[in-house]
Amino acid sequence: MADRGRSTQRGRGRRKFTPPRRKRCVLCIDRIDVVDYKQVGFLRTFLTNRGKIRPRHKTGTCGKHQRRLAVAIKRARHLALLPYTAEHIRHYR
């Protein structure tokens, strides 16, 4: 039969499975307790390119800080510091 690119030595050269490291909360590491809605550059790191708030499992934030981030982003959106949608999605008539 054809070998199809497989090695004949089984078990050699294989690495043990190591689970990926869990993301740590950036706000907990930096000991940031209050999330300010005026820090637009910082809040943009938690938004997608379409303007949506990134989920916890993507950013690695804890639940407490994710809720505070959501409130700060919504306040910044209300004051027009952050967009509700991306610029390329908006249609002007």
Could you please describe the fold and organization of this structure?
It is a single chain. The protein is an all-alpha fold. It has a domain at 26-78: Ribosomal protein S18 (30s Ribosomal Protein S18, Irregular), CATH 4.10.640.10. The protein has helices at 26-29, 40-44, 56-59, 63-78. The longest helix has 16 residues, at 63-78. The protein is flat. 12% of the residues are buried. The mean pLDDT is 86.
Keywords:
30s Ribosomal Protein S18, mainly alpha, about 30% helix
- Note the beta-strand portion: under 5%
Q: In CATH, what is the class of the domain at 26-78?
A: Few Secondary Structures
CATH architecture of the domain at 26-78: Irregular
- Element-by-element helix/strand order: HHHH
Global Rg: 22 Å
Q: Write down how many β-strands occur, each being a DSSP E stretch of 2 or more residues.
A: 0
Low-pLDDT runs of 5+ residues are: none
Tally of separate helices: 4
**Average predicted confidence as pLDDT:** 86
Quaternary structure annotation: single chain
**In angstroms, what separates the terminal alpha carbons?**
66 Å
Shape: flat
Largest sheet: none
Tell me the name of the CATH homologous superfamily of the domain at 26-78. Answer: Ribosomal protein S18
Helix content: 25-40%
Instruction: Give the CATH topology of the domain at 26-78.
Output: 30s Ribosomal Protein S18
